Amino acid sequence: MLGIPGLEALHPWISIPFCALYLTALLGNCTILFIIKKTQSLHEPMYYFLCMLALTDLGLALCTLPTTLGLFWFNRRRIGFDECLTQMYFIHILSFIESSVLLAMAFDRFIAISRPLRHPSILTKATVTKIGLAIVLRGMVSLLPIPFLLKRLTYCGKMELSHSFCFHPDIMNLACADIKVNVFYGMIILLSTVGMDFIFIVLSYILIIKTVVSLATREECLKALNTCVSHICAVLVFFIPMIGLSMIHRFGKNVPPLVNTLVAYTYLIIPPALNPVIYSIKSSHIREALLRALCRKSGSDW
User: Fold this and answer.
1) Contact 72, 22 (CB under 8 A)
2) In terms of CB atoms within 10 Å, which end of the chain has fewer, N or C?
3) Which of 46-50, 102-106, 129-133, 263-267 bottoms out in mean pLDDT, i.e. has the lowest?
4) CB 1 within 8 Å of CB 80
């Protein structure tokens, strides 16, 4: 495994911001889960989906943390093939789950804005649970053939991964055999899952804007749109680097390795660190619950 090309001598120093990002991701998402669990008023569909997002972000951070910090701190560059496939499988599953959770959150915002009176009866706790199970099942089943398709290939030559973690296009390109089946299946799965999720998220916001425009006053419009700001930020933080990385792996043969590496780190490390910060800043309910928890802690210390 490679770290950041051309900056190998600086890896110990580069590990400092990475540690800060991982620490932010772990503490931030655990705090979100704790606050929602302990605050009865947050036991609503929007925050159940936020819990799913936090759990997914925790999983993504924990998937890449051991190999990334192991490389930066101890120069551990080797990983077994089976371990690599396992890491790759979970990275991609969690990425697909995050995409689906963001779609579910868009659907929740659409129902809350367009059908506010029916929102609690449409998105009941049982319905949210079924949506969560369907999201996990879709990710697991759609990606299950990928490790087996990679295992059937023959590998030769220089066995170097361009990241400090295992990524499907990276492993696939190391093969000295025909990879057309892998490329085709990977493209179909990406378009039919993440691609469709993105399209439906965009459609949800078109319908939301259409509903908001029909509201009576400007204040109502702004209030309705303000409930979507956190989600829009989370969508942009996740999808922009993901689309960029997919384009680089498939069409960017002349892109410098450093750019490829930085986009990959942005895709897998930045969203888990930023999402809890975004929701803590923009969601007044989360912010107030967090402040109450801190005040109780300060009071108990005295």
Assistant:
1) no
2) C
3) 263-267
4) no
Q: What is the pTM of this model?
A: 0.91
Residue 57 tokens read as 């972000």
DSSP track, 231-256? HHHHHHHHHHHHHHHHHHHHH-TTS-
Question: In this predicted structure, what is the pLDDT of residue 59?
Answer: 94
| Residue 243: predicted pLDDT | 86
pLDDT in tens, 98-123: 999 999 999 999 998 888 888 888 99
CB 94 within 8 A of CB 59: yes
Answer whether 242's CB lies under 8 Å from 95's CB. yes
Phi, psi (degrees; rounded to nearest 5) at 190: -60, -45
SS3 category, 130: helix
Buried b / exposed e along 49-75 (16+ C-beta atoms within 10 A): bbbbbbbbbbbbbebbbebbbbbbeee
Kindly provide the b/e burial profile for residues 192-220, where b requires at least 16 CB atoms within 10 angstroms of the residue's own CB.
Answer: ebbbebbeebeebbeebeeebeeeeeeee
Degrees to nearest 5, angle at CA 159 with 149 and 9: 135
Task: Fill in the amino acid letter for 269.
Answer: I
Nearest in space to 88 (alpha carbons), one of 102, 103, 67: 67
The structure tokens 């439906």 sit at 200
H/E element, 150? helix 145-151
Per-residue pLDDT at 100: 95
Reported as a pLDDT band with limits 50, 70 and 90, residue 252 is low
Q: Which amino acid is at 144?
A: L
3-class secondary structure, 215: coil
Q: Is 230 exposed, middle or buried (0-12, 13-18, 19+ CB in 10 A)?
A: buried
Rounded to an integer, what distance in angstroms lies between the CA atom of residue 264 and that of residue 164?
10
